[in-house]
Amino acid sequence: MSKKKPGGGSTIALNKKAKHEFYLEERFEAGVALEGWEVKSLREGKISFMDSYVLMKDGEAFLFGCHISPLPTVSTHFVPDPTRTRKLLLHRKELGRIFGAIAKQQLTCVPLALYWKNGVVKCEIALAKGKKLHDKRATEKERDWDREKHRVLKTG
């Protein structure tokens, strides 16, 4: 179920809609501040990136809308919040670059993937620009054409 990344980690979840909905400009790797039950749920793969986004607030980055389903073994006296806001851990220079791009170039910041790296959960985020409907169609047409070219070259 999990795929190996070139850096030695394994992928927990991918945001497959991001490449379809946005032009991805610049990528960053961020740590994620998690609670213990969330880490256990991530090991089981109980995560959904649907409708999640990154918001810059007070000079910090936060992951909104990411749903981590709690395991049934979570303590009975603790009520977990599956869609709580999670803080993303980035260097100050990276935060400044992201904040500047969002403010000046009117880009948005989207999460692309969640993966393990040296036993720590990392989130890959990207600065992105939204695609229009005709751009999505052109991308799909280009992908189909590339697939057809490979078929023709393969068969000779």
Automatic annotation (TrEMBL):
PROSITE patterns named among the record's database cross-references: SSRP
Keywords: Cytoplasm, RNA-binding
Localization per record: Cytoplasm
Pfam families: SmpB
A GO cellular component annotation in the UniProt record: cytosol
Gene Ontology molecular function, alphabetical: RNA binding
UniProt keyword Cytoplasm, yes or no: yes
Gene Ontology biological process terms in this record: trans-translation; trans-translation-dependent protein tagging
Main location: cytoplasm
Xref: SUPFAM superfamilies: Small protein B (SmpB)
Listed NCBIfam families: PRK05422.1 (NF003843), smpB (TIGR00086)
Family of the protein in this entry: Belongs to the SmpB family.
Function, as annotated: Required for rescue of stalled ribosomes mediated by trans-translation. Binds to transfer-messenger RNA (tmRNA), required for stable association of tmRNA with ribosomes. tmRNA and SmpB together mimic tRNA shape, replacing the anticodon stem-loop with SmpB. tmRNA is encoded by the ssrA gene; the 2 termini fold to resemble tRNA(Ala) and it encodes a 'tag peptide', a short internal open reading frame. During trans-translation Ala-aminoacylated tmRNA acts like a tRNA, entering the A-site of stalled ribosomes, displacing the stalled mRNA.
Record-given protein name: SsrA-binding protein
Provenance organism: Ketobacter alkanivorans
Taxon lineage: Bacteria, Pseudomonadati, Pseudomonadota, Gammaproteobacteria, Pseudomonadales
